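Journal club side-thread
Mid-discussion, someone asked how the predicted structure for our own chain would compare to the paper's figures. Pasting it here so we can look after the session.
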Amino acid sequence: MIFLLMVVSGFCVPLLAERLGHKTGINLVTEIAQLRTHCIDSAQGLMEILSFGRERRALTALQIKHGKLLQLQSRMNHIDALSQALILLLTGLALWLALYFGVQLVLAEQLNGVNLALIAFAVLAAFEAIMPLPLAFQYLGRTKKAVSRLLDLAEQKPAVLFTEKDNNSDFSGKYSIEFNQVSFAYPEREAIFENLNLKINQGEKVAIVGSTGAGKTTLIQLLTRVFDPASGVINIANTHIKNFSESSLRGLMSVVSQRSHLFNMSLRDNLLIAKPKASDRELYQALKTAQLLDVVEQLPEGLNTWVGEHGSRFSGGQIRRIAIARAVLADLPILLLDEPTEGLDPITADEFMKSLTELMVGRTVLLITHRLTDVQDMDKIAVMENGQIIEFGTEAELLGANKRYAGLYAQYHLI
């Protein structure tokens, strides 16, 4: 009889808990994820929420989600309480049966009283081992859902597959860039490029200008192999980029963009991402090149100053100068600049471009911009429209041709 009660406690009650808690556990995982997302979005977009007077609406949405989460947690607690009560009931019943029959044996002098106590303790110990099972089964649905979310992420196939080793590592220091008949389209969208051709020679500085949506930033995404083109060939140093391993390709180019990210750690650690073994002297020299040394020297803890989430300790222009300092430390032969002055006021943008001058020396440079004053020090300018290079040459040549660039130039200087 006691064995039967143990089977009910260790098998039937956990299955009941699993059945009652399966759907609730799955909903619990979903609600927790949605609540976290809402909290992060609200915190990061607090300025916009306050600006449009939507703080009450955001708070109401938070309270609704929090209320749903509390309801689910309350239901899980009720299920837990029910399963634990059943286990305790069955444990008490088994103990009562053991003592009842044991006392009869003791009275009949067929069992020693000390042994009866040991039997009672053995029954309690057996049911104590069973006690956690209902709770584990109750949260099984939640655990499966959480594991499923992790596996969905882990099993996603990368958009680009790199080779493990370089197929050709002899570049002779000639780091040219060439797009040859390149076509590309984002999933479920019209083509961005159709048979695009562009050649940037070693040490040449080329700017790409054009309207928003022309495909300028996509050039850098293809160069860094965030995506691969549908057709055509992209060469670096006369070598197909698919012949580079990931580490080799990343070791050829630095990227400075309008979205340069700072991690929530010290300024020193943010800089060491580019060169982990850099000395303090190298760090200060890089900051000097980026024209940020005076700012850093005034910080309370210098290089050890915590930058805050998303670099909140610094302005947008200073964050981009830190990105320049990283590029200086990395000292790579190709420099990719993706709208580096976007969002900066004209004076700050001009000063920022001046700080890039030293970094560009001797490097192959591709600058993406819509700000025509940024292209003055470029060797060549390419005008892109609808995924095609429609003009290419020096600024003087393009102005002399009196076509698209000349029109952009005239319009820009009238603003």
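Post-session note: The mean pLDDT is 83.
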